[in-house]
Design a protein that fits this description.
Layout: H1 2-24, H2 28-44, H3 56-66, E1 70-73, H4 78-87, E2 95-98, H5 103-112, E3 121-124, E4 127-130, H6 134-140
Parallel strand pairs: 1-2
Antiparallel strand pairs: 1-3, 3-4
Transmembrane segments: 33-51
Protein name: Membrane protein
Organism: Streptomyces filamentosus (Streptomyces roseosporus)
C-alpha cells in the first residue's frame, strides 16, 4: 500500500516546495500554477484514478459469474493509465486488480508473462492479453 502512494506523495511535496518557493520569490500566481500541475500529476499517478481494486480471487469469482474481463494493473504504470483513461466510463465494467496489493495477482501476471510483472495484463475468456489496445478491450466491454 505504501508503494502505491509513494510517487503521488513525492509529487505533492515537490509541488509544495516548488510552488512555495515561487510564491516566496514574489510570484504567487506562478507558485499556484506549479502546485496545481504537481497536484494533477499526483492524482494521475495515484490509485484514485482507477476503479476500486479487488483481490485476484474475488475478481476471478466475479468474472466467472458475469463474464467481464479482469485487468491487472499497478499504480504509476503509464500503460495502465493510458488504458484506464481511454476506456472512460466503460472502465467500471471490468474487474481491476492491483498487483502490488495482491501477491496472488502478481503471481498470476508473472505466470502469464514468462516471469515478468508486465501490466496491464487483461484476462478475457480464460486468455491473458498483455498491454492490449484500448479499442480492443472497449469492444469486449
Amino acid at each position: 500500500m505504501i508503494r502505491a502512494w509513494l510517487l503521488p506523495v513525492l509529487l505533492i511535496l515537490v509541488g509544495l516546495l516548488g510552488g512555495g518557493s515561487r510564491a516566496a520569490d514574489g510570484s504567487p500566481l506562478t507558485g499556484l500554477l506549479v502546485l496545481a500541475a504537481f497536484l494533477l500529476l499526483a492524482f494521475v499517478n495515484s490509485p484514485l484514478l482507477f476503479p476500486r481494486s479487488l483481490t485476484h480471487a474475488e475478481a476471478m469469482r466475479r468474472s466467472a459469474a458475469d463474464g467481464r474481463p479482469v485487468v491487472y494493473w499497478r499504480p504509476g504504470c503509464a500503460y495502465c493509465m493510458r488504458l484506464r483513461t481511454r476506456l472512460g466510463s466503460r472502465a467500471h465494467r471490468a474487474h481491476w486488480v492491483d498487483i502490488w496489493r495482491d501477491p496472488e495477482a502478481a503471481a498470476a501476471v508473472r505466470a502469464a508473462n514468462d516471469g515478468n510483472e508486465t501490466v496491464p495484463t487483461v484476462l478475457v475468456d480464460g486468455r491473458h492479453h498483455t498491454n492490449p489496445a484500448p479499442s480492443w478491450l472497449r469492444q469486449r466491454l
